Amino acid sequence: MLVALVDLNEEVGKASKDAFDKQFDAQRTIFVPCDVSDEEKLKDAFQKTVQHFGQLDIVVNNAGVNNEKNWEITVQINLISVIRGTYLGLEYMKNENGGSGGAIVNIASLAGLLPVAYQPVYSASKHGVIGFTRSIAMAATIGNYGVRVNAICPGFVNTPILQSIDKEENMGQYSAYKQNIKDMIKFYGIIDPSLIAEGLIRILEDDTLNGEVMKITNKQGIHFHEYNSLPFQSKQQ
Ligand SMILES: NC(=O)c1ccc[n+]([C@@H]2O[C@H](COP(=O)([O-])OP(=O)(O)OC[C@H]3O[C@@H](n4cnc5c(N)ncnc54)[C@H](O)[C@@H]3O)[C@@H](O)[C@H]2O)c1
Fold first, then answer.
1. What is the DSSP letter of 207?
2. CB contact at 8 A, 160 and 60
3. Measured between alpha carbons, how far is 213 from 188 in angstroms, rounded to an integer?
4. CA of 29 to the centre of ligand 1 (A)
5. What is the spatial distance between Cα 98 and Cα 179, in angstroms, rounded to a whole number?
6. What is the model's pLDDT at position 93?
7. Which of 39, 92, 115, 170 could disulfide-link to 56, CB 3.0 to 4.6 Å?
8. What is the CATH number of domain 55-224?
């Protein structure tokens, strides 16, 4: 496996590359600094990756923020950049463009399936990711793209994003409710990031999964959200 790590934060990106290099040959991983909300920079990151490794097979749209004060960036990073990352991934991987197929995994959240009183924009952005992922997965099947698109919805995970709950510059008018969120975290528990990696690998390895919404919780582990049925599709499509 060859990996391009893409992140705005150079320190985090280099530390991730160092961690990979301890386990794998250093040639297998590159770090590409990039603000995913910048259209040109994201396009460049894809181009650099394909130029470097010669091919693209998997895209994980993972970058995300929790910001209810400067809420527009939450929509920009969590939703618009995920849509753009998906379209760029399809451009390189889909059959009709000469690609050899692949898989795209969009990181949503349980907040994309439930209302969250103290993070309404974060919740909206993640609802958007799920709706987009399920819809584009249908388009991929109908259009025979050869690319599967799925979403992962974790509960609370032990990563730095949880620290944003304590910050007024992130929570804005919802700062007063930080204890309520902490109570929720205590109630539901915190998941180890390794379980998210396990879920991701399961999606990548199972070729039958497309348009699925994987939930990862402390109580139930890795499981899938069940929907009643898919909407009407014309046979002519
Ligand atoms: N930790 C949780 O409790 C939790 C729960 C559900 C979903 N998620 C989602 O998981 C994903 C990963 O988050 P995490 O928990 O690892 O948090 P994190 O804060 O540790 O990681 C997010 C990463 O995204 C990067 N990033 C932010 N804005 C960026 C931008 N504009 N361009 C490029 N990179 C950018 C950050 O530098 C950071 O490395 C996010 O989409 C998040 O919403 C997290």
1. T
2. no
3. 20
4. 20
5. 52
6. 98
7. 92
8. 3.40.50.720
What residue owns the CA closest to ligand 1's atom 25? 63
Round to whole Å and give the CA distance between 214 and 237.
Answer: 27
Contact 131, 231 (CB under 8 A): no
| Residues written for the chain | 237
Q: From ligand 1's centre to the CA of 62, what distance in Å?
A: 6
Token representation of residue 209 = 């999964």
Which amino acids bring their CB within 6 angstroms of ligand 1? 7-9, 12, 34-37, 62-65, 77, 107, 109, 154, 156-157, 159-162
Which pLDDT tens digit goes with each residue over 86-101?
999 999 999 999 999 9
Q: What ligand 1 atom has the least distance to the C-alpha of 126?
A: 43
In the predicted model, residues of the chain with pLDDT beneath 70 are: 235-237
Amino acid in position 199? G
Q: How far is the CA of 64 from the centre of ligand 1 (A)?
A: 4
Q: Is 122 a catalytic residue?
A: yes
Q: Kindly report each contact of residues 49-54 with a partner whose C-beta sits within 8 Å and lies 24 or more positions away, as own/partner.
A: 49/4, 49/6, 50/92, 52/4, 53/2, 53/4
